[in-house]
Give the backbone structure.
Amino acid sequence: MVLYWIILPIVWVLIHILWRIEVVGLDKVPRDRAVVLAPNHISDFDPVFVLGMILDFSRYRILAKKELFKNPFIGWFLGCLGAVPIDRGKGDTETIDRVIAECKQGTKVLVFPEGTRSKDGRLGKLKSGAFVIAAKAGADILPCRIIYDTPDARMHLFCRIRICFGELIPAGEAKPDDPRHEVRQLRTLRTQVTAQLEELYAQHHFDRDPLAQPAPQEDKGENHADPAC
């Protein structure tokens, strides 16, 4: 925890040197209680940008794909920030249950509801993990849209970045008393967060709007590896 307090100010300085970052709606981020922060996901640096701008010395718990921890330095750095590895696509209920228990005790959580990075900046279909954590922990959900001012809508060194926080959704209060309605409620929360994320982009995108163009068609004849993976 002490390392986190040391690293966070250093991260804040570095990201302001290497990128030009604007923040919208920072006052909407709760400081005194647990919350499930739900940003869109484009770059592996996304949690660093978001938490660096929030600059909350109450460490967040971040759900990060297990593959990122294979690099010892990156794994150490992510661990200092509060990240825990999750085995995507294999029903890692043990990690989810542990995060829910921490959130019930007041720990803030950052989860990328898309479950993976977008390759073109467009919002992907949201998965249920963030909403399950919020509902079972009784925590609100805060949508967050990360926007990169680049021709391909992806992160590049020295680019402009806009981080936009939406309106709190009281997921804990909306949890149904009847478990039979749980799936319907999760679907409603997913719809609400999707709508907010899209609205945040519509309101706050840069003058250059790469998402206004049709999505690029994947060339199935070649295998284009993503160098950021």
